[in-house]
Structure formats: structure tokens, C-alpha cells
């Protein structure tokens, strides 16, 4: 058994070790209370910085021709199964495209949908040579559609100053390319406003 002075010295030393950030006066103040709450200081772990995996730049992608479709792959028949998949995707998205479906609801979903695989037709254009071109959308970029026609020709159609139509299960939707200059990933989050008249 220890004497009172030894016990006091032990407690003081113990508290000093347990609470290194406290001054002696603060420890003495704590001792006058009935309950003593010991503090725990955990060592801060140094976080290792994660190295971000850098992707290819636009220039590198062009040089590697990542988005180019080989000439032997530029055939309309190859992409017909893609169109069938797209039609099923739109039916699921619009809950079956029933005859009583609200046109504005279907239009709103089509504007945000992925259009890879859709068959589109240029119905209006400031450039007459584009009017009437029909094909399956193979790639959508911010400013252009790449489509494959029934004649197995790959066409690059600008969105600006063109109106496109697409038809599925009797429902025809019109896309004003000038108001559609977004990447597919950006379109899904954009809110499109209904407008009465839209110019080319």
C-alpha cells in the first residue's frame, strides 16, 4: 500500500502522460473534480496521395484513331441489330410506347435518351444536299452525328442548322440540331424547355 503522497505523485504523473496537451494547472483543476475523463490522442495517419490515372488527350485519341470506323465495318446490315436493341431500349424507357402515351412525355424522354442505334432522317436543312439523308446513328458528338446509310456510306451530319426526325412504333419525334449541341452524357442532365417555334 502506498502513502497518500506517493499515490498523489503517481496520479499526477499518470495524468501528465495521459494528457500531454494539458498544463499542470489544468490537471490540478481536473483533480478537484469527482470524475476524471482521460483524453486519447490518436496519431494522424498521413494519407497517401492517389495517383490519378491520366487518360488520353483529344490529340492522342485522334492519332490512335480510337473513334474511327474501319472501311470494312461501314456496312448498314452490320448495325441493324444495334437499331433493334435501341428500339427495345426506348420501349422500356417509355413504358411500352402505348397509343395513349402522352406525346410530350415521350418527346422529353427521347431528348435525354442515348441515340446510338436510332434511325434518323434529315427533314430540314439550310444545306439542301443534307435533306433526305437517312441512316443509323453510329456516333454522336457535341456538334455532329455520324450515320451509316442504306447505301453503306458513312455520313457526318452537323447538328447546326439541321432538323432530324426519328420514328419508333408510329411515334415521330423531331430534333432541332441547333438546340441539341451537347454530348450524349451532358444531355441526360439538361432540362429542355418547350418552345412554340424554333428557327433552323
From TrEMBL:
Cellular compartments annotated: Nucleus, Nucleolus
Keywords: Nucleus, Phosphoprotein, tRNA processing
GO molecular function: ribonuclease P RNA binding
SUPFAM superfamilies linked to this entry: Rof/RNase P subunit-like
GO cellular component terms listed in the entry, alphabetical order: nucleolus; ribonuclease MRP complex; ribonuclease P complex
Subcellular location, principal: nucleus
Subunit and partners: Component of nuclear RNase P and RNase MRP ribonucleoproteins. RNase P consists of a catalytic RNA moiety and 10 different protein chains; POP1, POP4, POP5, POP7, RPP14, RPP21, RPP25, RPP30, RPP38 and RPP40. Within the RNase P complex, POP1, POP7 and RPP25 form the 'finger' subcomplex, POP5, RPP14, RPP40 and homodimeric RPP30 form the 'palm' subcomplex, and RPP21, POP4 and RPP38 form the 'wrist' subcomplex. All subunits of the RNase P complex interact with the catalytic RNA. Several subunits of RNase P are also part of the RNase MRP complex.
The protein, known as: Ribonuclease P protein subunit p29
Gene giving rise to this polypeptide: Pop4
Amino acid at each position: 500500500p502506498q502513502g497518500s503522497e506517493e499515490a498523489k505523485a503517481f496520479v499526477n504523473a499518470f495524468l501528465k502522460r495521459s494528457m500531454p496537451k494539458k498544463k499542470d494547472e489544468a490537471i490540478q483543476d481536473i483533480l478537484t473534480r469527482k470524475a476524471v475523463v482521460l483524453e486519447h490522442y490518436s496519431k494522424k495517419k498521413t494519407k497517401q496521395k492517389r495517383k490519378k490515372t491520366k487518360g488520353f488527350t483529344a490529340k492522342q485519341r485522334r492519332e490512335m484513331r480510337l473513334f474511327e470506323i474501319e472501311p470494312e465495318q461501314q456496312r448498314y446490315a452490320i448495325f441493324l441489330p444495334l437499331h433493334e436493341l435501341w428500339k427495345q431500349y426506348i420501349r422500356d424507357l417509355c413504358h411500352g410506347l402505348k397509343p395513349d402515351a402522352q406525346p410530350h412525355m415521350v418527346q422529353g424522354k427521347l431528348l435525354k435518351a442515348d441515340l446510338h442505334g436510332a434511325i434518323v432522317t434529315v427533314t430540314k436543312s439550310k444545306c439542301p444536299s443534307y435533306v433526305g439523308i437517312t441512316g443509323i446513328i453510329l456516333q454522336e458528338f457535341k456538334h455532329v452525328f455520324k450515320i451509316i446509310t442504306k447505301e453503306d456510306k458513312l455520313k457526318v451530319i452537323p447538328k447546326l442548322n439541321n432538323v432530324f426526325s426519328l420514328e419508333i412504333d408510329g411515334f415521330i419525334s423531331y430534333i432541332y440540331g441547333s438546340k441539341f449541341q451537347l454530348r450524349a452524357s451532358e444531355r441526360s442532365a439538361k432540362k429542355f424547355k418547350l418552345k412554340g417555334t424554333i428557327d433552323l
